[in-house]
Write a structure and sequence with these properties.
With about 450 residues, the chain is of the alpha/beta class. The protein has helices at about 25-30, 45, 50-60, 75-85, 100-115, 130-135, 140-145, 155-160, 165, 180-190, 205-215, 220-230, 245-250, 265-280, 285-295, 300-315, 320-335, 340-355, 365-375, 385-395, 435-454, and strands spanning about 65, 90-95, 120-125, 150-155, 170-175, 200-205, 240-245. The protein has 4 domains: about 40-175, 3-Layer(aba) Sandwich (Rossmann fold), CATH 3.40.50; about 180-250, Helicase, Ruva Protein, domain 3 (Orthogonal Bundle), CATH 1.10.8.60; about 265-355, Up-down Bundle (Zinc Finger, Delta Prime, domain 3); about 375-454, post-AAA+ oligomerization domain-like. The strands form 2 sheets. Strands 2-3-4-1-5 form a 5-stranded parallel beta sheet, with helices on both faces. A two-stranded parallel sheet has the order 6-7.
Length: about 450
């Protein structure tokens, strides 16, 4: 049975199980908000006067896509909307369900509309998991108005959803919940006599309360379940009072919840912050974001791979040894493993953050674009292979064009002024030397040599 399925029809239909809670249900389930007034967070969407709140209060709701991190309230908000506008609420999980389940919902929605004109809201959780054909299957039913879609995704909808679906939906981004919003729900659960723990005599010390809220990492479900574990596992005193101190709180929630999905958008956001911190030469920030990724379960080899790219893309010729250093750190990591491998990750990260920076290696892409757009021009005759030129010259009874080639080692400082690009591109320049580190010294040396020769 669907978690939100109502048991009775008519007015009584909206008296859900959660209004008569069974204490076998987890506290987080019992305390799930039933109205906008109970909903915590997302003030930018449902605060007084905000667009989504105005839509809900007017009862005019079109199809919506909620996107944001896990535990930001996407499912709960969808359920609240259905209750506020007195609509039938149907749930499909895109991981488990497909077009067959969609057809069943549509059939049911058609019957309800004919019977009493009641609207059906279809909540599709993790809608990004549906392929193009499955997403397209929604379109005719949205057009006909048989169902109103509320989709939820942790992915960027512009990348994960098809354009025809996006064009029929309004998009709303949900933000991570703050520590104060988690505290609000914890307080509410402790005071609620009907659905929460208000019937019990509970005292939670300030440091224990703060620990539960902080370690939950913005996940209200995690915080409420930890509170319930703490209460149910604690013996009341002679007066029937239960005290939750810091020690009990630590036992109830032993590991901080990290809001991070190494396969989703968050992965790329964190990787971006990591790279940009190294590029900005901030070693502390670089270490912070690297550790956040590791804590979220990212593969250390992925981090080394990103640092290898960085060593060439962002440090480049300013410190040519950077790529060798990172490669050595990765090799040492594979030999030693964790936890000692953290030293090698730190070594590479701190080194790159403090290296002089140059992005001159990007010249390769500019040359590539030149060739892709305009093709390859003719090679100057004197740069061609001498042996091949000799055979051609003998056959045509002409001088070997390669004889005009100036051999740099025959000249002072092993350099001679000579054109190497095709005639059409002889004044073209793509490489721009950086002004830091060894690259700046190399460039200065060669400019001095060229100046002397002239």
């Amino acid at each position: 049975m669907d978690l939100f399925e109502e048991k009775k029809s008519g007015a009584a239909h909206f008296s859900s199980q959660k209004e008569n809670p069974q204490y076998s249900e987890p506290l987080a389930t019992r305390m799930r908000p039933q109205s906008l007034d109970e909903f915590a967070g997302q003030e930018h969407l449902v605060g007084e006067g905000k667009m989504l709140r105005r839509m809900i209060e007017s009862g005019v709701i079109g199809s919506l896509i909620f996107y944001g991190p896990p535990s930001s309230g996407k499912t709960t908000l969808a359920h609240v909307i259905s209750r506020e506008i007195k609509a039938q609420f149907e749930v499909i999980n895109a991981v488990l369900d497909g077009i067959k389940e969609l057809r069943n919902v549509v059939d049911k929605a058609e019957k309800l509309r004919k019977l009493n004109g009641r609207k059906t809201i279809l909540f599709v959780d993790e809608i990004h998991r549906w392929n193009k054909a499955q997403q397209d299957a929604l379109l005719p039913h949205l057009e006909s108005g048989i169902i109103t879609l509320v989709g939820a995704t942790t992915e960027n909808p512009f990348y994960s959803l098809v354009n025809p679906l996006l064009s029929r939906c309004q998009l709303f981004e949900l933000h991570p919940l703050t520590m104060d919003e988690v505290k609000l729900m914890l307080n509410r659960a402790m005071k609620d006599d009907e659905r929460g723990l208000g019937a019990k005599d509970i005292e939670v010390t300030d440091d224990a309360f703060n620990h539960l809220a902080e370690m939950a990492g913005g996940d209200i479900r995690n915080a409420l379940n930890a509170l319930e574990v703490a209460v149910l596992s604690s013996e009341p005193d002679e007066e029937g009072s239960i005290t939750i101190n810091l020690e009990v709180a630590k036992e109830s929630i032993q590991r901080r919840n990290v809001r991070y999905d190494r396969t989703g958008d968050e992965h790329y956001h964190y990787a971006s912050a990591f790279i940009k911190s190294m590029r900005g030469s901030d070693p502390d920030a670089a270490l912070y974001w690297m550790n956040a990724m590791l804590e979220g379960g990212d593969d250390p080899i992925f981090l080394f791979r990103r640092m290898l790219i960085f060593a060439s893309e962002d440090v480049g010729l300013a410190e040519p040894n950077a790529i060798t250093m990172v490669n050595a750190c990765q090799d040492a990591f594979t030999k030693c493993g964790m936890p000692e491998g953290m030293y090698f990750l730190s070594h590479a990260c701190l080194y790159l953050s403090q290296c002089p920076k140059s992005n001159s290696t990007k010249a390769i892409f500019q040359v590539n674009r030149e060739i892709s757009e305009r093709g390859v021009k003719d090679i100057p005759p004197y740069l061609k292979d001498k042996t091949a030129n000799k055979m051609g010259a003998k056959h045509l009874d002409v001088e070997n064009a390669s004889d005009d080639y100036k051999y740099p080692h025959d000249h002072p400082n092993n350099w001679v002024d000579q054109q190497y690009l095709p005639d059409e591109l002889k004044n073209k320049r793509w490489y721009e030397a950086g002004n830091q580190g060894r690259e700046a010294l190399l460039w200065k040396k060669w400019q001095e040599i060229k100046k002397k020769d002239h």
